[in-house]
């Protein structure tokens, strides 16, 4: 199957990561999907932001969990791309609303590794169901109990095992926990062993963060499941060249 192009935190090379602007651009750049990160606010809302704090991306300081969603909306989040003066932290429901009319896949990464954000799995599943987007969502997390919980709550939900260090029996591990895909760091793909094994066991690889053209080309040639990249436009061109 043709390798998919998923925009990492939206088209984040060109617009502030995890903002509506970055997701809109990913659609325009003809990505097949987007990857985004979710944290929980003080008032239990699903905020789309990578870090536990707003310090790096927004013009403020502090933990996401210590602000209400309305308070978070007061901050500009265009630190990396100052020309985007209107960029703010979106709520997950806003992103899903934006993507609903498209056919893009959505990889929702639950950022539960630092703070547990009790109940986040239930909230995300409920929202996706309400939006009737279950078919094109895949859940991932570095904190594997979260994806185990997602599967337990909804056996139909698709999950991906997110990891950054090389493991020896990762395909078997994914099978054991009932996951549908592996989400390895690109640094784990310097040999073809994992690619071969994943094909054999029918566990697709969704690889992040692939920003080098030569790597995109290699992974597209190998027919991996998805390239997760900050440059969906470049990946689109490379994947399409393969026919
Ligand atoms: O989900 C793929 C990738 O986003 C995982 O790492 O730190 O960019 O969320 P990070
Ligand atoms: Mg992520």
From TrEMBL:
Gene3D superfamilies referenced in this protein's UniProt entry, alphabetically: Phosphatidylinositol (PI) phosphodiesterase
SUPFAM superfamilies attached to this UniProt entry: PLC-like phosphodiesterases
InterPro entries, A to Z: GP_PDE_dom, PLC-like_Pdiesterase_TIM-brl
Residue ranges of every copy of the GP-PDE domain listed in the record: 3-239
Highest taxon listed in the record's lineage: Bacteria
PROSITE patterns, per database record: GP_PDE
Name this polypeptide is given: Glycerophosphodiester phosphodiesterase
Pfam families, A to Z: GDPD
Cross-referenced CDD domains: GDPD_TtGDE_like (cd08563)
Family matches, as PANTHER family: GLYCEROPHOSPHODIESTER PHOSPHODIESTERASE, CYTOPLASMIC, GLYCEROPHOSPHORYL DIESTER PHOSPHODIESTERASE
Lineage: Bacteria, Bacillati, Bacillota, Clostridia, Lachnospirales
């Amino acid at each position: 199957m043709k390798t998919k192009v998923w925009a990492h935190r939206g088209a984040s090379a060109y617009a502030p990561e995890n903002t509506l602007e970055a997701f809109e651009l990913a659609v325009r750049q003809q990505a097949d999907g987007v990857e985004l990160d979710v944290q929980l606010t003080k008032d239990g809302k699903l905020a789309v932001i990578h870090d536990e704090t707003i310090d790096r991306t927004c013009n403020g300081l502090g933990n996401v969990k210590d602000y209400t969603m309305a308070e978070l909306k007061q901050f500009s989040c265009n630190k990396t791309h100052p020309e985007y003066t209107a960029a703010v932290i979106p709520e997950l429901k806003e992103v899903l609303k934006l993507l609903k009319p498209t056919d893009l896949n959505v990889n929702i990464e639950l950022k539960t590794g630092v703070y547990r954000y009790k109940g986040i799995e239930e909230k995300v599943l409920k929202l996706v169901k309400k939006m009737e987007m279950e078919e094109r969502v895949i859940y991932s997390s570095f904190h594997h109990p979260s994806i185990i919980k997602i599967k337990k709550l909804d056996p139909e939900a698709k999950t991906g095992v997110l990891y950054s260090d090389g493991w020896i029996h990762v395909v078997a591990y994914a099978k054991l926990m009932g996951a549908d895909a592996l989400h390895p760091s690109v640094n784990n793909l310097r040999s073809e062993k994992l690619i071969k094994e994943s094909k054999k066991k029918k566990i697709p690889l969704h690889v992040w963060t692939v920003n080098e053209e030569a790597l995109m080309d290699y992974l597209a040639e190998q027919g991996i499941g998805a390239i997760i990249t900050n440059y969906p436009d470049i990946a689109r061109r490379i994947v399409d060249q393969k026919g």
